[in-house]
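Everyone, study these two lines:
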Amino acid sequence: MTRGNPPRMLRALSLASSLTLLAATAHADELRHAAPPEVPPLAPSAPLPAPQAPSVLPADETPLLAALRGIVLVPDTSEASLQRLATGVDVSAVPLTQPQIIAAHLQASIGQPASLASLQRLANDLTRLLREQGRVFVSVWVPPQDLTDGVVRIAVVPALMEGPMQVTGAEHFSDESYLKWIRQQPGVEPDAARLQEDIDWINRNPFRNATLAAAPGSTPDTTLLALRVRERRPVRVFAGLDNTGTENTDEQRIFAGFNWGNAFGRGDQLSYQYRADPSRKHSITHSGSYLADLPWRHWIALSGAWSETTPDLGPTFDQKGESWQVGAQYHVPLPTLPMDQTVLRQDFYVGLDFKYSNNNLEFATIPVMDNKTDVAQLTLGYSLNREGANSSSFISPQLVLSPGGLSKYNTDEAFDGSRFGAKARYAYFKLDAEHSQRLPAGFRWDVRGNAQYSNAPLLGSEQIAGSGTYAVRGYPESQAFGDKGVVLRNELHLPPLPLGGLNDVSLDTYVFYDLGWLRTVGLDAESIHLSSIGFGASLRLAQALSLDMSVGRPLEKNVAGADGTRVNFRLQVAY
């Protein structure tokens, strides 16, 4: 090496350090976007049907009694039941889950005048209360009786399930793949809440949808139950393009893959996606996932991805990076929490991830850096979904832990080579949240938030991303990362636009305002604020075509490339 070369080499080394860190985050971003797209679900299941009462009284307000002296709930219409007497309310002959609530409601009618219409209203109110308590398959009616004693007997008769449950409409999934998740047994009263849980579990697979159908049995106190199912062909292929790449690996991306919704005839879901820049010279990614339901109603998700990137750094530098990762998550659904007009579904999960990255950088054919890292970490997570009549919410806190020292490249030395000060042993906290609120006149407000906290420097694969399509729109991809930070995306969706009566076509338009705050930790500590405004649209043609587009303008010019309006798009066709 000549005497004149060292200054040039020192400048190269300084630039190389920045390029290595930028490349590491670029590799991480490729893997962030690598997961195969989710399959849109079929229509949601209909509510459970209510049995019809054997008789309904006429709407006659003519008083039958000047004052109602007693109300007795009876389990049948036998002579003995219709001669039961009571002063006040007697619900002891009928098994109830919450007898105090039922008795208190009936007590308000004691001493009041009674007519055929008021007695029918009493039966209707009792039916509503029982449904709220999960007793859907119960018939309530006022049978013919002698009221001269001032006491009315109301029959409360549960319908027992007759025979085994049937499946109708199945074409691609076996009857057994449905029935094995139904816990209802013949000969007992159907448990509506439990049946709904079973149906919700079945409908987690987006390639099928089941609803419960009920019909009268062979006797008045029995009912026939069946699963009425709709299915789509369980193999779906897709292809498309978007612009979620980086400037030095080409912003355009093409992708193709498939979803198999009945993998190996088990009802599992297997997905694969190939993703690359159009020339296939700068970025190639393969990814896959496998979801399997376990017999004890837990489920496991396996995932894997491999990516190779060769960024265009000009004629002087030559870089090539390889990254791959494998992961597994074990999910334990927790009890559903029904509330007034709201359902809360919760889930706990444990995840294991292993990520490998290898970045090689050359300067004028001279090797400058060749660093390998292994990330081995545990994730403890919880998710809560709330579904209401006019709004829905989601929140998921996660704790990520890495003990370090679990492999050859899972060491402080290897981590420090990729980012100065990074340690193989770390912990950080993440929070994902969403809320959707219906507004008057057909408007809707959606807000999504991501937050992360770490008090130590992290590798690029573990940092929170702040710019691009899936973060603060209007900024280039992979230009803003932090060890801790918050990203908020606000969207005001406009009323649906009429599309000439086309039932399979939908157009969703919105305006947005995004915010972000990021901070790195360590010697290179700095904070950055991001914000943008813009508008977007999503076009859907049944399940065959989707086009998403947003136009954003950054309000803060503190990120490289944030110099004007930026358009993000994604086009996908599927069959």
Remarks:
- The helical segments are 5-32, 99-107, 116-132, 175-179, 192-202, 412-418.
- Residues 161 and 187 are 5 Å apart (CA to CA).
- The chain has three domains: 5-41+261-574, 63-158, 160-231.
- The longest strand covers residues 317-339.
